[in-house]
Structure formats: structure tokens, C-alpha cells
Amino acid sequence: MKKLAIIGTGWISSSFVEAVQQTNSFEVVSVYSRTLQKAEEFAKKHQIPSWTNQWGEFLLENNWDVVYIGSPNHTHGDYSKQLLEHQKNIIVEKPSFLSVEEWDEVHQLATEKNLFVIEAIRHYYEPAFQEIRKIIAPRMNEVKGAVLSYAKYSSKYDAFLRGEIANSFSLSSGGGALMDLGVYPIYNAISWFGMPEKAHYQARKLQNQADGQGIVSLEYPTFDVTIFVGKVLNVCLPQEIYFGKETLQINDCQEIKEVKTLYMSEVVETKEYELRRNPLEWEAIGFVKILERTPESLKQYEQSKKISRNVLEVIEALRNSAGITFN
């Protein structure tokens, strides 16, 4: 079993560690946080034997060779480059990097070092997600359009209204609705339909100019995909893909448990899928397979890398269209 270290002590890191422990995917041996107390509390909560707030010491630890980066978005690039220089494989929470340029720099270094940089995008590894890809692929010439969404009222939004700006709402941290939640349905669109010809984002900006919500339009040669994203409202719509008289209706953007086929608006088939208690379990299992370096896992890794870069390229185009810049 490979040994894993953790960077960041937020809820996403905690959920990932729990998923790893529930699936026996890795042995978690160390955690780093800039705040020693947070590192210690996190380590004791998850029974991790080592913790530190000394970055130099953390880099030199030789009892692990895989690291999960769950820190704020703007830290991913610098952390990744330093970790690769110290021969560490990387699992980096979505969005992996802030720009295509940064993505290219990190992955070029990883290739030179013969190491992995894997984006943690949890629903990509769900069986239902991959099956939907297989359903759509042979019918691409029949697709007439799709409506996707991921918008949830953020637990940090009320504090934002009081003037307390969390990383997920901060442009200096690479935050905003598109980067935080929009990445999920955009992953769906790119994975299922490929790269669009045009991409536009009609963003509704908050007082600090970060996007609180918006509508993404992806233009393909014969159809369009509309995506609703937001951190200041709840959207409860299913995901829908249109094939003329038929509609594929998916219960959610992620944690997909039910896919219905409708013919002329009448349900003709319903498929149900297993959900894990912790939705990050599927990706934890997937990461272990990639790190095994089998021919099949290496093929999967290259495919996931291509999609990761394409998603970031589209997000960058969307940000540019909306005038969103990170400062």
C-alpha cells in the first residue's frame, strides 16, 4: 500500500482522508498546514502519525511518495512544482491549476521526472459517469443539445455578505462560482461531447468582482450546451441531454444514482447506480489503479490528463469572455 501525505486541513481534505481510510486505498502518514494547531488537530482526528507546519521539513520527508493537495486553488501550482522536484506523485484537488500555462508547466515537469499529476475530480471516476459517456459516444450525431447545472448556496456566502471573504469567493485565491462549482458540469460537457467551437460565460459578479453565479454557453457544430453555475443560489434541476424525441435525464451533476430515458416526455427506462457513503471513495480507488502503472491504467491516465487540460482551456476562455481575472 502506497503512503500518502496531505496538504491542507479543510473539509475536502478531511473527506478525502476518510474516503482513503474507508477503502484502504493508501496509508496516510503525514499532514502539512501553515498553522501547526490545525495540522495537529487534523492529524489526531484522522489518526495520522505525523504533522508539521514547516514546509521545508515536509518536503524532505522520505516516508511517503504520493501527496494530496487540498489547499486553496492559487497554491496548487507552486506546491506542485516543488513537490515534483522532490520526486513526489501528486493528486491535486480541482480545479488543478489556475491557467493552461501553469498546467503545462507542471505536467512538463512531471513528465521529465516520470511522475504523476492527477486531478481530483470525484464524479469522473463514478461508474455512472463513465457509462453515460459510453451511451452518448455512438449517438453523437443525434445530440440536439443539453442543459447541465451545478449551483449550491455556499455555506460561506452569508459571511461574505458580512465582509468576510473566504478563499472560494476570493479572486486572489482563484475563487468564484465557475472555478469552484462550474468545473463539475464543464467536466461533464467536455467528457461527454468533446471540445466546443465557442465558449461564453454570462457572469453575475459580486461586490469584489468574483462571479457569484452565471450561465455558460458552449457551442458545438450542431448543438449547444447550456450550464447554470452558482454559489449564491440553489438549482435543483436534473441534467438533460436531448436526442430529438428522446431525452436522457440524469438526477444530478455528480453523485449520479439514476439515469432515465424518456421518449416524447414519457419515461421508458430507468437505470440505478451504486452510491458510496463517501462520494470521494470512487476517485480514491481510481487513483490507486493509475499509480499501479499497468498499460490500461496508463491509458486511463493519459485520457484523464487530456480532459483535465481541455476543461481548463475552456474555463480560461469562459473567464476571459466574462472579464474575470485573478489578482
Automatic annotation (TrEMBL):
Pfam families hit by this protein: GFO_IDH_MocA
SUPFAM superfamilies per the UniProt record, alphabetical: Glyceraldehyde-3-phosphate dehydrogenase-like, C-terminal domain, NAD(P)-binding Rossmann-fold domains
Domain Gfo/Idh/MocA-like oxidoreductase N-terminal: 3-117
Organism: Granulicatella elegans ATCC 700633
Domain of life assignment: Bacteria
Transmembrane parts of this sequence: none
Protein name in UniProt: Gfo/Idh/MocA-like oxidoreductase N-terminal domain-containing protein
GO molecular function: nucleotide binding
